[in-house]
């Protein structure tokens, strides 16, 4: 027996959902809100990074003594002229990397307490104290040229002038060249010993003002060449005062005659209570 199944009725209603006026109003409202947010963000980005408001226009720094202030200023403006991420200007105070600028300045100049502060109103405030030189260092370079440097007790080359500076002690290097690009490779103990030795000669050793202090390749030794006289040899590891007492004693006794003293080749004061001279 055959059974007849009645076919399902197909709805003829519109398959698309109709949007009510209220829904349309909500959609437009969200659209304008999103547009407003995008416009505000774009304006904020432009104001912060691309407008003239935060552009660096002035650098304030203290005067310099041992290098031209213009060299430091040029380095700052060159760094500020580079682009951040290849797109944004680095002369924007908000984008200027103060740590990177500090590193670049310290790589080129010898400064203490370098501080960089950004001040609204297009200004960069830079404060520092220069490292100063203590002595001069003169040596013959590998090419045979005589070089004069002014260095601190750490050996940093602070200044390399064309002419010697007045009233600054010069140490002459008679050994292997020690000057590099930015530093003289000499231990601090030699430089401080020379400074104390020279001051002691000025204060207490009479009649030996015409002298040159020099170093050579001898370890722990500082030497003084007396003009038309002997070489005095001191030990940097021994008590300076005791060595000076020995020098004063021998000048009053065995070598009290000035001509006899000047005829000696050297006086070696390095060994305990003994003095070797010839």
Account of the protein in words:
This protein has 278 residues and is α/β, with parallel strands linked by helices. The protein folds into two domains: 58-129, Ubiquitin-like (UB roll), CATH 3.10.20; 135-277, Rossmann fold (3-Layer(aba) Sandwich). Helices cover 32% and strands 23% of the residues. It has six helices and 14 strands. The chain has helices at residues 21-50, 69-81, 98-108, 188-204, 240-252, 258-262, and strands spanning 58-60, 83-84, 88-89, 111-119, 123-130, 135-140, 146-151, 157-159, 170-173, 211-215, 221-226, 231-235, 266-268, 276-277.
Question: How is the topology of this model organized?
Answer:
Layout: H1 21-50, E1 58-60, H2 69-81, E2 83-84, E3 88-89, H3 98-108, E4 111-119, E5 123-130, E6 135-140, E7 146-151, E8 157-159, E9 170-173, H4 188-204, E10 211-215, E11 221-226, E12 231-235, H5 240-252, H6 258-262, E13 266-268, E14 276-277
Parallel strand pairs: 1-5, 6-9, 9-10, 12-13
Antiparallel strand pairs: 2-3, 4-5, 6-7, 7-8, 10-11, 11-12, 13-14
What key attributes describe this structure?
9-stranded mixed β-sheet; Rossmann fold; 3-stranded mixed β-sheet; 2 domains; Ubiquitin-like (UB roll); 278 residues; 23% strand; 6 helices; alpha/beta; rod-shaped; single chain
């Amino acid at each position: 027996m055959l059974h007849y199944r009645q076919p399902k009725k197909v709805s003829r209603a519109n398959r698309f959902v109709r949007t009510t006026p209220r829904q349309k109003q909500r959609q437009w409202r969200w659209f304008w809100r999103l547009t407003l947010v995008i416009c505000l963000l774009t304006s904020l980005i432009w104001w912060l990074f691309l407008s003239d408001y935060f552009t660096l226009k002035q650098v304030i720094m203290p005067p310099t003594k041992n290098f031209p202030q213009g060299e430091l200023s040029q380095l700052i403006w060159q760094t500020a002229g580079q682009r951040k991420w290849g797109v944004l200007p680095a002369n924007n105070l908000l984008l200027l990397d103060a740590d990177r600028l500090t590193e670049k300045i310290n790589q080129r100049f010898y400064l203490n307490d370098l501080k960089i502060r950004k001040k609204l109103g297009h200004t960069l405030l830079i404060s520092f104290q220069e490292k100063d030189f203590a002595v001069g260092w003169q040596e013959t370079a590998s090419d045979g040229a005589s070089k004069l440097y002014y260095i601190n007790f750490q050996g940093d080359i602070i200044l390399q002038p064309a002419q010697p500076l007045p009233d600054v002690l010069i140490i002459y290097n008679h050994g292997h060249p020690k000057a590099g690009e930015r530093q003289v490779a000499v231990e601090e103990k030699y430089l401080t010993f020379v400074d104390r030795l020279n001051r002691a000669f000025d204060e207490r050793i009479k009649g030996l003002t015409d002298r040159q202090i020099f170093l050579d390749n001898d370890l722990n030794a500082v030497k003084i060449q007396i003009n038309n006289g002997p070489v005095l040899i001191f030990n940097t590891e021994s008590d300076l005062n005791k060595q000076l007492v020995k020098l004063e004693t021998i000048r009053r006794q065995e070598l009290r005659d000035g001509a006899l003293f000047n005829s000696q080749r050297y006086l070696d004061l390095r060994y305990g209570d003994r003095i070797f001279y010839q």
